[in-house]
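TA notes, week 10

Several of you asked for a full example with nothing omitted. So below is the full record: structure tokens for the whole chain, then the designed sequence directly under it. When grading your own attempts, check the secondary structure regions first.
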């Protein structure tokens, strides 16, 4: 399987088309990186391109874009690998950028150039960013999509903050309104989003966390991160184990990224006025919700599509990232980097995530 993840050369006809692309990719929020009209910046850089859906990414030299007045050029150090990045490259995500495109929803790096209207950033600033084409040595983004990071936060760890911790904060704090002392169940608790949720719930929100994962090793990692108990749902019955751990009272909050039967067991394990937050369907099956259960137990089922807040409520979206940085500075969270790949290994990184081999955040290094 891993052998098919090899780089291919971009056909000339595709590159000619890409070089003609100009302006922003509105639906995906990505600025084209192939405008070579700037006399000052005719340099090129390496990037991973999706030239065909459901095919391996292609490594290619591309021309640097000319900055618009509100844009910032960042020398990328690390780019996060999210399940959503893979879905985009398969054409299965909510947002579908036109081909070819450079994936990479979150990245960290150093500012190397700013547009004439940029006032919040200057050359040399250490930043994290979202919404750009992060799987490349350079990325050009609007200034509002960048956040400064402190020196004590490494570039590698910083890459794990936007998507995973941003999602966790919006899900657990904003949507579920998790309270101190409540019991929180986190499924796929050793994945990037799951481990961030364990970290946030146990350390920042002072909740009691039960971690559910697919192996004893992953369960142990979630316990190290702050869960007071864990359940291996490949060898144990999730619903029965939750009854034992909660004295048959159930849990207050569920953070679910799996879907399928795991979601159903978690939903039925909520206590009175419990809340379940749907974050994803990594298990592949999208479950139906029995409405009578919502009524009988006065429970709530809600969703969190973190990226949508960028358009619907940008202040809240931005706040989720700023809060993650603040919590790190306060010593209340610490991202877990499970694996690091080099840019030429980007397809191996995708394969690593797809095979559920990853623990915590998987990142790609550009250096």
């Amino acid at each position: 399987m891993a052998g098919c993840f090899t780089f291919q050369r971009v056909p000339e006809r595709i590159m000619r088309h890409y070089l003609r692309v100009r302006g922003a990719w509105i639906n995906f929020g990505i600025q084209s990186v192939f405008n070579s009209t700037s006399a000052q910046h005719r340099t090129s850089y390496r990037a991973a391109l999706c030239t065909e859906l459901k095919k391996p990414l292609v490594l290619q030299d591309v021309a640097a874009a000319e900055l618009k007045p509100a844009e910032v050029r960042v020398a990328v150090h690390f780019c996060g690998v999210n399940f959503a990045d893979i879905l985009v490259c398969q054409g299965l995500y909510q947002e579908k950028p036109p081909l070819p495109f450079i994936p990479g929803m979150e990245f960290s790096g150093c500012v190397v150039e700013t547009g004439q209207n940029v006032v919040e950033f200057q050359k040399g600033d250490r930043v994290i960013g979202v919404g750009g084409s992060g799987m490349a040595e350079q990325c050009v983004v609007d200034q509002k999509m960048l956040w400064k990071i402190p020196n004590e936060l490494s570039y590698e760890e910083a890459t794990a903050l936007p998507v995973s911790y941003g999602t966790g904060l919006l899900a657990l704090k904003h949507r579920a309104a998790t309270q101190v002392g409540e019991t929180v169940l986190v499924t796929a608790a050793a994945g990037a989003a799951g481990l961030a949720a364990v970290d946030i719930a146990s350390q920042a929100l002072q909740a009691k966390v039960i971690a559910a994962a697919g192996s004893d090793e992953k369960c142990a990692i979630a316990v190290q991160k702050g869960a007071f108990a864990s359940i291996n749902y490949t060898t144990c019955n999730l619903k029965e184990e939750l009854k034992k751990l909660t004295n048959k009272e159930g849990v207050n909050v569920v953070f679910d990224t799996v879907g399928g039967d795991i979601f159903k067991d978690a939903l039925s394990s909520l206590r009175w006025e419990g809340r379940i937050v749907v974050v994803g369907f990594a298990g592949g099956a999208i479950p139906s919700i029995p409405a009578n259960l919502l009524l009988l137990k006065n429970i709530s089922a809600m969703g969190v599509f973190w990226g949508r807040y960028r358009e619907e409520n940008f202040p809240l979206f931005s706040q989720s990232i700023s809060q993650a940085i603040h919590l790190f500075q306060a010593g209340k969270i610490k991202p877990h980097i499970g694996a690091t790949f080099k840019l030429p290994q980007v397809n191996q990184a995708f394969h690593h995530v797809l095979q559920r081999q990853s623990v915590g955040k998987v990142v790609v290094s550009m250096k």
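Residues 1-42 have pLDDT under 50 and may be disordered. Use that as a sanity check on your answer.
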